[in-house]
Amino acid sequence: MGKHIIPRGFVVNTNDHKGEVFFNSDDYVRMVRMGANTQVIRLELGKLSNFPGGKLEPDYLVKLDSLVALGKYHGIKTVFKMTVYGVDKFVWEEFWQNKKNEYKTYIDAWKVIWNRYSNASSVLGYDVVNEPRKLTMDISYENLTNKYLIPLYQKIIDESQKINEDKMILFQSIFMNKGEKIDNNQYSEITKPINRKNIIFAPHIYQNDISFIKRNMDRFDKESDMLKAPILIGEWGFPTFATTDTIIEGKLGQLKYRELYIRTAEVFDKMGVGSIKAWFLGNRTMQNFLPGGPSTWSIFSDKTDAGTVERKYITDVISRPFPQSIAGDIQSFLFNHATRSLDVKIKPDNSKGASKIFIGANRHYPDGFSIFIGQESVLYYNPLKNVGLEIYKLSNEIDPTDFIWDSKSQKLIVLKWPKTEGILDIKIVPGIRNFD
Would the N or C end of the chain have less CB density within 10 A of its end CB? Predict the structure, then answer.
């Protein structure tokens, strides 16, 4: 349709350290009500390939089908991401040398997915190599990228596009060894183009130092321009500690996390990039590789595979209002966490269909909200009445039935924007009489 879409959502795991993970329709409703329009399903190489210890498992493919179908039913697009989990041993140093034709075995695993979903319109694309590593290999990160990683990407892209030419290919940079960060960024820089179409740069950012967030993102932005590939943040959000769930203040306290996530989200929004948060999981297990003790990326704290108890000190930031899908071009948008106001500037094009703005009123506007459309029109929602949108004032160009509040998905649906030759300002603020 040619709409301007901001992808936002979650990494959806098919297993955790306790075993398989299962999701149902209610989990996807919860995802939607947290602002998700995209899921990244984390694939297990061991269930798709002939690497030692791996084999193609038909039941696993059926499980993937169900996740794609659940997403489609709830208006969520799917990206698949390949991880190297589930094989007996995956040695990056041997993989790069390709002496046992590892590249073909890896691409054959992807071909199972490409062929299965080539005609699935709700599948956007494929994140083809997750966090590639150098480890003990005697080579610089730049040479590893130029000599091995980029040629591999080109080979994967060419093979994929023989099967599904229009799907997007997402790619990442080398995940550097511990202690080898540059400018507090764990991901090495890509300095040469890939020279392929339909590609998306999908870096990860797990930054825990506020002063480095914009610097890291500015570097990604520079890479994006050189690569001629838009950015989608493939994973983000520093892991939370067991301690964080129990304390408010301090270095690991919830106030620090809220500020860190807010500052990261502000940079994303100002850049206009989409972002995928790890993980949409409950908290059956924790990892223990950071100085602060046991930690997790799970956004729910209950000890089940699919959780419901939110870590609200991060989920309220993850689930902030934003323009999901706009008929036309988004010029800028930003949610101000202090004032709870969303500002969006668009250049509308009604020929592109309907638009959707995620508002998340259940968490951000329990006091109701007002919608300013340009200078002359104000609609508002009163949660005490729960009768849909009401009119404060309206220009003659606007049909109020074109503006629909969907309380189930927590979205404002706009069937048609008022006619304008220039930029249209939309502002959403808390309260039902906040018109000054």
Answer: C
